[in-house]
């Protein structure tokens, strides 16, 4: 019995240290980006030695892949739960809930920093990570595609190229999110010149308004 307790305590301590390394890695990755991050930076942030990190992860790539896998698993579980709870609901509602879910995920720093749409370019020179990111994007694409196709089949949406509609919807959502969360310098200058406050942007760039615009277009 004593040996079992000791073994359990050891496993628990190892799990906590592993999680501490992951948490520290997230902090450093968000701050420095993948390429500029070093294992020693992660170790110092976690308050441990560099060698300890290697006891849990073989490389920086393996560490980041673990973080990415956790994000993917969390996202897939969220989508599956949403689809189960909204079975039979209007497809417009499913899209809106999915967009809100994306927004909620982005508000969690450790998840937003792993958003595949934002990582695709950075990992051009890392085939393993690029493949994992591509698989996640494919899952997202298929999830949105299935909702749109269901809407077309039900007569909720008009006949259209569902593949094109999926690409447009995902692209628009990603661009709008980038405008709000991390706008490029030219956009910042425009926002400043228009005297738009954070409150103004938050009011204008809502999931509901974006979806309404995408589904109903510009025409009166």
Question: How is this structure best summarized?
Answer:
The chain is an all-alpha fold and 220 residues long.
Q: What's the helix and strand layout?
A:
Layout: H1 2-32, H2 39-46, H3 50-56, H4 60-85, H5 91-106, H6 109-112, H7 116-119, H8 127-154, H9 162-181, H10 185-193, H11 198-204, H12 207-216
Helix pairs in contact: 1-2, 2-3, 4-5, 4-8, 5-8, 8-9, 9-12
The end-to-end span amounts to 74 Å
Shape: globular
Largest sheet: none
The CATH superfamily of the largest domain is identified as Tetracycline Repressor, domain 2
CATH architecture verdict of the largest domain: Orthogonal Bundle
Please provide the ordered H/E string of secondary-structure elements. HHHHHHHHHHHH
Helix proportion range? over 70%
Cα radius of gyration in angstroms: 21 Å
């Amino acid at each position: 019995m004593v040996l079992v307790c000791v073994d359990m305590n050891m496993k628990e301590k190892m799990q906590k240290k592993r999680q501490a390394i992951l948490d520290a890695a997230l902090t450093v990755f968000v701050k420095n980006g993948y390429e500029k991050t070093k294992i020693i930076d992660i170790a110092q942030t976690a308050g441990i030695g560099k060698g300890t990190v290697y006891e849990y992860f073989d490389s920086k790539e393996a560490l980041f892949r673990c973080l990415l896998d956790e994000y993917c698993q969390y996202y897939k579980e969220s989508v599956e739960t949403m689809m189960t709870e909204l079975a039979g609901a209007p497809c417009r509602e499913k899209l809106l809930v999915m967009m809100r879910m994306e927004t909620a995920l982005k508000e969690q720093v450790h998840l937003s920093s792993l958003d595949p749409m934002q990582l695709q370019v950075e990992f051009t020179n890392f085939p393993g990570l690029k493949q994992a990111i591509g698989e996640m994007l494919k899952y997202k694409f298929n999830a949105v595609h299935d909702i749109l196709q269901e809407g077309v089949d039900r007569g909720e949406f008009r006949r259209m190229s569902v593949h094109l509609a999926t690409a447009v919807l995902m692209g628009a959502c990603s661009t709008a999110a980038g405008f709000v969360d991390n706008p490029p310098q030219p956009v910042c200058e425009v926002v400043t010149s228009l005297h738009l406050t954070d409150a103004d942007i938050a009011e204008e760039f809502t999931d509901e308004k974006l979806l309404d615009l995408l589904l109903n277009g510009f025409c009166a």
